[in-house]
Amino acid sequence: MTTSLKELSKIPMKLTPGHRLCAGCAEPIVARQVLMATEKPVVVANATGCFEVSTTIYPYTAWNVPWIHTAFGNAAATCAGVESAYHALRRKGKIDQEMRFVAFGGDGATYDIGFQSLSGAIERGHQFLYVCFNNEAYMNTGIQRSGATAKGASTTTCPAGSCVPGKQQYPKDLTMIIAAHELPYAAQAAPHNWKDLIAKAAKGFEIGGPAFLNTLTPCPRGWRHDSDKTIDMSKLAVETCIWPLYEYENGKFRLTAESARIAEGKMEKKPVSEWINSQGRFKHLTKDRWMDVADAIQEEIDRKWNKLIQLTKL
Amino acid sequence: MKTVKTATMGGRIVEPGSAMKFETGDWRSHKPVLERDMCIDCLTCWIYCPDDSVLVKDGKMGGFRYTHCKGCGICARACPKKAITMVEEDE
Amino acid sequence: MTGNLGINGDSAVALAWKQVDPDVCAAYPITPQTIIVERFSDYVADGEVETEFVCTESEHSAMTVCIASASAGARTVTATASAGLAYMWETLGIASGLRVPLTMTVANRALSGPLNIHCDHSDVMAARDLGWIIMFAENVQEAYDNAIMAMRIAEHPDVQLPVMTNLDGFILTHAIERMTPLDTHAVKDFVGEYKPLYPLLDVKNPVTHGVMDLQDSYFEHRYQVNQAMKASAKVIEQVFKEFGEISGRHYDMIETYKCDDADYVTLTIGSTAGTMKAAVDELRAEGHKVGAVKLKVMRPFPAQNLRDVMAGKKCVAVMDRHLIVGVSGPVFLEVAADLMDLPDCPKLVNYVYGLGGRDVMVEDLKQVYMNMMNDKQDKVNYLGVKL
User: Is the complex ipTM more than 0.95?
Assistant: First the structure.
């Protein structure tokens, strides 16, 4: 798998410009990187959401590869359907080349409404890579809370008001839940570290069974930061251990990239307060009144970080 | 393609990448400008562009696809040599 | 009915699938469809079919897998009932709107609540708006024949719509009847090879499938679906003709029984259409001029066929095994709209019957005719409910 940008830049575009995602959206950054991770012909399944809607407004498509969208909570089943057809036709000799199958879905489509179909597709062992674009809310419908929304984050269905400081619950740890399926490969990645993300996507494509790649996709609109800060946010999420970079491969957990360096003490672990201060969705947490929420978030991040480190030692 | 006679069956789009015809360049209020002498062709701007609007020619930074660049400014922030500046779009 | 095989309806559908050997089948079990998927699983396990059989974790996923599989280029089948059809409701309109030629057998069973696992038509009737071709079966033979013909109809280039073939839950799914299957060779010849339009797996010609329409194009795409549904009537009649030539069984969009000189006629769907013929025979023996119409194909709606047979009749009783709450049965509404501008439009009455598997006997159906003859009924009647 080639890892130089010069080499990667020679790969023909699978996703073209002309899509209507917001300026500075992380989703197409991740998608471009994922699609560079395989040289085999690829078919894409996509859940309803920003990415699907913005890349395929009839009669325009930003897709240079076969692509299908059916509904919201079923990207995994959609992908499984294409993959099943592939196996059936390959067996009958009607298709003579190897192909790869990738599903894209937001956190809404993956953590919540599409969770069941993802779990089922993994249990059945379909050979596909599922990539979650986690921007921590249902962004396409207007920034409503999802199971992935951070504690304390203000969204339109858990706003920071005079009585309640945003979301009460901690986010669901979907990557761990998927790893509990004991599938061949699961990982967390983030778009600032393209080398790490592409390597993980490449592994997922070649693992020969279900693979899950959870990517943090900062959202300038929903997180309330400037559109040029997307990559900065991605980096900060990893440096604060809000979004550790790790892999689960054949039963073993392993930290990668910056997260590995932080665990080894070779890189500074930044305080969560930097994360909170960087985005408008958390600005109410900087007030004295909600200081305990900010503290609780730091505690929870530390607890999960330490737990993850323990898991890598098993 | 928007009448009963001309619309595709089921809305299928059979011309891949037709979105290239939809020029999102008019979204921006600021545009990236490259200081070529400072550029080291690391292609960091290229990998981070959400709109694949950094042109690469023979492995080197070849300018911007202004027809589609939305002016998000990620490239300017990411450039390790500060070779890209965001300037206000002309009237 | 003569035939050389004693088999229940579900097993007959599974047999039809076996003989076709579809590329993919994705399904979730639900009473009374379960025997279809169980029998088919046996064929898979014994290597009698090459089908990629996907046991999905829900019906929503089952239909999703089927839509994606058929779009990818594989001949795909599934089956469900009642709550399963309800669970996949969102995807039904997607299958038709995206013009996906797949076939599904529905074992008609009441929708909840309360929970009832027995036969009525509430499941299919609640989905009749959604752009699927809808066919019914009076008996096990028809259920088997429909499952085969459905593929030719769905896959026809002028149609490209999903087809739903229905059979009454328990009454046909589980009851053993005599039927005559075709030779496997004849089935394979009849359905032929699936020739998909713009398959996803044709990577040399990448297609984008399942787009977003804004306000400027959705109406036109729906209109096209409407056109295809109407065009399918001709295709269905052609397929019936060809099937008749290889099987000796000649079907039609509607089937009439002793209607020519009848003054009083009923319209029925499914197994009760068979019972109705017995009622007609008994009344005819008593000298009454009565007849029965069976609605075999409901979508596309056989508007002209019904007008042709019903014009000039004194009274038509439309039998509905589903109740649109607060209104009437659904077929009644569609027939009324169809006939209302006839200069010799018959009097129309509705009988809602058999909900939740409530049995309907020959005597009950004879009473329907007696009521018509004595002009003693309401516009909407509830046959068999215990007040």
Answer: yes
Instruction: Give the domain extent around B65.
Output: 19-88
| CATH number of domain containing C37 | 3.40.50.970
Q: What is the mean pLDDT of each run of 10 residues along chain A (314 residues)?
A: 88 98 98 98 98 98 98 98 98 96 98 98 98 98 98 97 96 98 98 98 98 98 98 98 97 98 98 98 96 97 98 96
Q: What is the mean pLDDT of residues C241-268?
A: 98
Q: What is the pLDDT of residues C181-221, one digit of tens each?
A: 999 999 999 999 999 999 999 999 999 999 999 999 999 99
Q: Which residues make beta-bridge pairs with C349?
A: C317
Alpha helices in C259-373 (DSSP H): 272-285, 303-310, 330-339, 362-373
Whether B14 maps to a domain, the answer reads no
DSSP string, C43-61: HHHTTS---EEEE-SSHHH
How far is the C-alpha of C329 from the C-alpha of C354, rounded, in Å? 12
Q: Are residues C270 and C335 in the same domain?
A: yes
Residues in C 86-105 with any Cβ partner in A closer than 8 A = 90-91, 94, 98
**Count of structural domains, chain B:** 1
A22-36 pLDDT per residue, tens: 999 999 999 999 999
Chain C nearest-CA distance from A98, in A, is 11
Q: Does C297 share its domain with C235?
A: no
Q: Tell me, what's the pLDDT at A70? A: 98
Please give the helix or strand (H or E) that residue C287 lies within, else none.
none
Q: Return the residue in A198, A227, A233 with the most chain B beta carbons within 10 A, the one to mutate for interface testing.
A: A227
Chain C contact set for B19 (CB, 8 A): none
Instruction: Give chain A's domains with CATH numbers.
Output: 5-312 (3.40.50.970)
Structural domain count of chain C: 2
Assigned domain for B26 exists = yes
Q: Name the closest residue on chain A to residue B46, using Cα atoms.
A: A9
DSSP assignments along A236-271, one per residue? HHHHTTSS--EEEETTEEEE-HHHHHHHTTSS----
Helical ranges in chain A per DSSP H: 5-8, 27-35, 50-55, 75-91, 107, 115-123, 174-179, 194-206, 220-223, 230-239, 257-263, 272-278, 291-312
Q: pLDDT tier at C3 (50, 70, 90 boundaries)?
A: low
CA distances from A18 to B7, B22, B33 (A): 21, 5, 20
- Judging contacts by C-beta atoms under 8 Å, the chain A residues touching residue C212 are 52-53, 56-58
Beta bridge partners of A249: A185, A252
Q: Which domain holds residue C360?
A: 254-383
Angle at A232 between CA A134 and CA A38, to 5 degrees: 55
Domain with residue B28: its CATH number is: 3.30.70.20
Mean pLDDT calculated for residue range C321-329 = 98
Which candidate, C169, C24, C216, C48, places its Cα nearest to that of C102? C24
Count CB-CB contacts under 10 A for residue A38. Answer: 22
Task: Quote the pLDDT of residue C1.
Answer: 42
Token code pair at residue B78: 């990411």
